[in-house]
Amino acid sequence: MVASVKSPKTRQQAPVGTMASAEPLTALSRWYLYAIHGYFCEVMFTAAWEFVVNFNWKFPGVTSVWALFIYGTSILIVERMYLRLRGRCPLLVRCLIYTLWTYLWEFTTGFILRQFNACPWDYSQFDFDFMGLITLEYAVPWFCGALIMEQFIIRNTLRLRFDKDAEPGELGGPPALANGHVKTD
Question: How much is the pTM?
């Protein structure tokens, strides 16, 4: 079976299952995935925290719409760090760098949002907080989050491909040419 693949000069034939028309996701597409992931994790973390601290069986997870921008942008920047550091630093050092970046980013975005009375978090009740914008009590969760972010979220997002020739809702095409196909090499 053969699938048509467009080329600049003429249509050529490529074997089914090849990814000739598949392209990496754009930065905006990756930002969107990272933003949604961060938003979801924020809600789940706050729900778990509420259960552990207050034994609240309702698991009320909360966040702010600002989290979409904050997480999407931060993880996209960490992605760039990952691509530069992956062959130069051991994993644990990279995760430490990502954790330090997370503290810097959380402080900066929190400080800016506070100027508009829009900062959705306040760590003032924690023992090791700084200006209520960051707290050392979250160092281990941020480090573990950095490890998960690199090893699962960023690495797999960078493997995703978009097939520009696939028609939305088209049924019966070869599965290897479907949108969102994960690159296997």
Answer: 0.78
Q: Residues with Cβ < 8 Å from 177, sequence gap 6 or more?
A: 3, 16, 17, 19, 21, 22, 163, 165, 166
What is the C-alpha separation between 70 and 141, in angstroms, rounded?
Answer: 17
Rg (CA), the chain: 21
Please report, in angstroms and rounded to a whole number, the separation of the first and last CA atoms in the chain.
22
Taking the C-alpha atoms of residue 109 and residue 42, their distance in angstroms, rounded to an integer, is: 16
Residue written as token pair 């062959």: 87
pLDDT in tens, 20-41: 568 999 999 999 999 999 999 9
What CA–CA distance (Å, rounded) separates 155 from 123?
Answer: 31
